[in-house]
Amino acid sequence: MADKMIPTIHIIGQGVIGSLLATSALLQQLPVQQYIRTKPAKHLNHTKQLNHTKQLLHSDNLSVQWLSGQTVELPEPYFLDILSPSNEQLSGLVIIPVKAYQVANILAQLQGKLAPDATLVLLHNGMGSIEVALRLFPNHTIIAGTTTLAGFKHHSIIKHTAWGQTQLGVVSEHKQGPENNLSKLAPPSNLAPKPEHISLINLVIPEVTWHDDILTPLFTKLAVNCVINPLTALHDVRNGKLSSPRLFGLITKIVTEVVAVALTQEVLLDNVALFEKVITVIHDTKDNYSSMHQDIKLGRKSEIEQINGYVVALGIANGVDVSQNKSLLQQILAIEKAAY
Ligand code: PAF
């Protein structure tokens, strides 16, 4: 791509995935800007705000240790509220790899701040934000996906540990049906992604595969998260401990509910294949503590409402039995409530 034609990559958030994507862009000399969400004090200019927030966060600039050996110091981020010193609308790619419960707020904050040609990329655990994005940005191309790109953060250092697989698809043509229904009308879309945006995504995100129906991989990942995340948090164990046959009955019930709920969205999943997928992920990530385990352990808010909570909301709206997912939702919410 000739330099002047390369669209900017805007990455919202400074979490692990956002910082890994920023590093990938910097290493390839692609134009990238990262944004943090801290609400700025109105009386401070951009530079003073940045210093002020750094003091609050006690943080230096983040460094990323890339899997292939390089260490990259990330440049200072912008503030989402200010966007950029020139306060222009964002064009190019706007990637939102943040916690699921932060996405709706970020999308609301981005309203009126996206240039018409911007492409939104949603990349997080759990579900529910596609509906919000479709409602708030009906005229923008929206891409949603799930990734196993991985790393971990220790103080101001992020260590990249796996390239993973990232599955993406365009959702702007999934029109919202009746309330609580993501049914696909699939009309010919005038919101097809720009080829230069697709090329840029393929450059900046490692190991991308594209799906015509991204809802299938998304509901598959949802089932994986519905099982592994709350069970590891409740039993205080690493993922691998869930491979005990005495949990198979419960895992089957959780998966069966997700399959039934997915069907209400015209997403056809297979019970047996999905159970096997969950068990495979449990084996492949056996030494990991799940993200929900870490959140609960550290007394942080978890993504339960966007994971089992999403299944429960869709199940209730569509008359599907979701009692196992509901029980997990209630147990995790009770722990969160007790922690505050
Ligand atoms: O949320 C997580 O931790 C991950 O999505 C997964 C797949 C459950 C592995 O730990």
Structure description:
This protein has two domains: 3-212, NAD(P)-binding Rossmann-like Domain (Rossmann fold), CATH 3.40.50; 216-339, N-(1-d-carboxylethyl)-l-norvaline Dehydrogenase, domain 2 (Orthogonal Bundle), CATH 1.10.1040. 41% of the residues lie in helices and 15% in strands. The chain contains eleven helices and twelve strands. It has helices at residues 16-27, 46-57, 100-110, 129-136, 195-204, 215-235, 248-264, 271-284, 291-297, 308-317, 323-339, and strands at 9-12, 32-36, 63-65, 71-73, 78-79, 93-96, 119-123, 141-147, 150-154, 157-162, 166-170, 208-210. The strands form two sheets. Strands 5-2-1-6-7-8-11-12 form an eight-stranded mixed sheet, sandwiched between helices. Strand 7, helix 4 (129-136) and strand 8 (141-147) form a beta-alpha-beta unit. The relative contact order is 0.11. The structure holds pantoate. Pantoate binds next to helix 6.
